[in-house]
Write a structure and sequence with these properties.
11 helices
Amino acid sequence: MTTIGIIGAGEVGSQIARAAIANSYEIVIANSRGPETLNGLIDELGRRARAASAADAAAAGDFVIIAVPLSRVNDMPAAELAGKIVLDTNNYMSWRDGHFVRVDSGETTVHELRQEQLPASKVAKAFTHIQAPSLLSTSRPAGDPARRALSVSSDFPEAVELVTRLYDQFGFDTVDNSPLSESWRSAPGQPAWIDHARQNREELALNLRRAVPVFPT
């Protein structure tokens, strides 16, 4: 049985946990306030889920999902994440996160910064342009004409393959938007973000190509 470690138990982390449990994964989930504060979520998720510290969730996961914003100084358990595929669900929002000069200038992307902070991990940008509740409400079987598509970006093909399998299990098609240096194409404000509620694979691929860099003034 595959275990997913999830760091972050807000709307995104908890909805991914629900989708994962529905697809027979084991879940170890953490937040910043301690495992004892997650009793209600664990009771809802059932026997396949348990709460832990961030380090324990990272150590337990066959792969790990980070569902918290990037900090300027790494606050993720890098040692426990070493050698693992890490799915980063973060979107860069300067009003919330403050300004990252290297991101604002176009020198790098927020997901490349996550990769820099976790150099021994294989980071993939995933689940970033879908509203969390839609993970369960809009999933469709393969071949359904109403099936939505999600993008993935990574510098590691094996990470792209894992995300593609996970998306398919959750009921979504995939568009590969690699490497991480291209991950800005699905950022807030870009066509892929604005049209996220209705994109199939062809529409998402087109919207990713239509993206234009935006640099704050």
